[in-house]
Amino acid sequence: GSREIKKPHIRIIAATNRETGELTRKGLMRKDLFYRLNVVNVRMPALREMKEDIPLLADHFLKKFNARGRRRVRDIAPEAMERLIEYRWPGNVRQLENVIERAFAIGVSDTISAIDLPDELRHEPSDTGRDGGGRFNLKDNEIRLIRKALEHVAGRRAEAARLLGINTATVYRKIEKYGL
């Protein structure tokens, strides 16, 4: 609203999910723009590179959604936290926040369990399920998950089936098949 011309004092903060130097070399970003913006360059690693931060971030999101007061969730079950840590997180921190919010929306317990997680987190193979050839080993993963579920619920097969997101008959069949 002034009649005087004033020289602004501003700083521009820009972010990208791509390597800016590479974009410039390929001609996909103008060099002059790159050099104007590249005063302080901060590289933020992807969430999959910071697995140790996942429990802290998940706890932060628990507190955030608890503060809304619609529902109270006190913690995340160990098997659910394991799935969160093992997942590759292509959507990074925003995706983790959305997963925790989804668990709030559909869960019924005061603890987020594996059954409250989206399918892609419950069923993605983990590095611990690899065989010697570097391929994912479905049988070993299945055995490990069924054992963990049974341990977690003190051997109650119907409850294990609920945690795993499969029907009880399937759990019985797998126990017999693998001799668990």
Could you describe the 3D structure shown?
- The structure is a single chain.
- With 180 residues, the chain is mainly α.
- 50% of the residues lie in helices and 2% in strands.
- The protein is built from 9 helices and 2 strands.
- It has helices at 20-25, 31-37, 54-67, 78-86, 92-106, 119-123, 138-152, 157-164, 168-178, and strands at 75-76, 111-112.
- Helix 7 packs across helix 8 and helix 8 (157-164) crosses helix 9 (168-178).
- The longest helix is centred in the middle third of the chain and has 15 residues, at 92-106.
- The protein is elongated and about 80 Å long.
- The protein starts with 19 loop residues before the first helix and ends with a helix.
Q: Give the number of DSSP strands.
A: 2
What's the helix count? 9
Portion of residues in beta strands equals under 5%
Q: Write down the overall geometry.
A: elongated
Distance between the termini: 77 Å
Helix content: 40-55%
The largest pleated sheet is described as:
2 strands, parallel
Which sequence of SSEs, written as H and E, runs from N to C?
Answer: HHHEHHEHHHH
The overall average pLDDT, rounded, is 85
Q: Which stretches are poorly predicted, pLDDT < 50 over at least 5 residues?
A: 125-135
What's the arrangement of strands in the largest beta sheet? 1-2
What's the Cα radius of gyration? Answer: 23 Å
Structural class: mainly alpha
